[in-house]
Write a structure and sequence with these properties.
There is one protein chain. About 30% of the residues are buried. With about 140 residues, this protein is an all-alpha fold. About 70% of the residues lie in helices and about 0% in strands. Helix 1 (about 10-30) crosses helix 6. The chain has one domain (about 10-135).
Length: about 140
């Protein structure tokens, strides 16, 4: 029997969310008005950053089972910024401090600066409706 490959692994989910977050951040910093799309973009970034953070533990589980504790800890430290910036942006979002939301989005984009997104990507606009999702999510 061959290996069982999970096509929807935590690493693949993280890669997709990183690209979508970078796309949303690039759109957000070019917005000139505070409209529904601005709120959707920022809400999506908050949710996506938390989703990225949630993929870290499943990714390092295999390393920990084999005793690669240092590698697992390094990976956790490499991605710990996602939860910190998600919480920071959410705090500003709830306070309607939109300039600080944009500043936090810039911090995220600095971390994701090397992410390449094709001009003909098929992601669409994953942030549509994110504001309602964030408002209905208990934190």
């Amino acid at each position: 029997m061959g290996r069982v490959i999970n096509p929807d692994s935590a690493g693949k989910q993280r890669t997709q969310m990183v690209k979508a977050t970078a796309l949303a951040g690039r759109e957000l910093i070019h917005k000139t008005s505070l409209d529904d799309e601005f709120k959707d973009l920022s809400a999506f970034m908050i949710l996506a950053l938390q989703a990225i953070f949630d993929t870290i533990d499943p990714s390092v589980l295999a390393w920990e089972k084999r005793g690669y504790w240092v590698k697992a800890d390094q990976f956790r430290m490499e991605w710990s910024w996602t939860q910190k910036l998600s919480q920071e942006m959410h705090k500003f979002w709830l306070a309607d401090d939109w300039p600080s939301v944009v500043q936090t989005a810039v911090k995220v984009l600095q971390k994701l600066g090397d992410v390449k997104i094709s001009a003909h990507h098929r992601m669409g606009k994953p942030w549509e409706g994110a504001r309602m999702m964030l408002e209905n999510t208990p934190r």
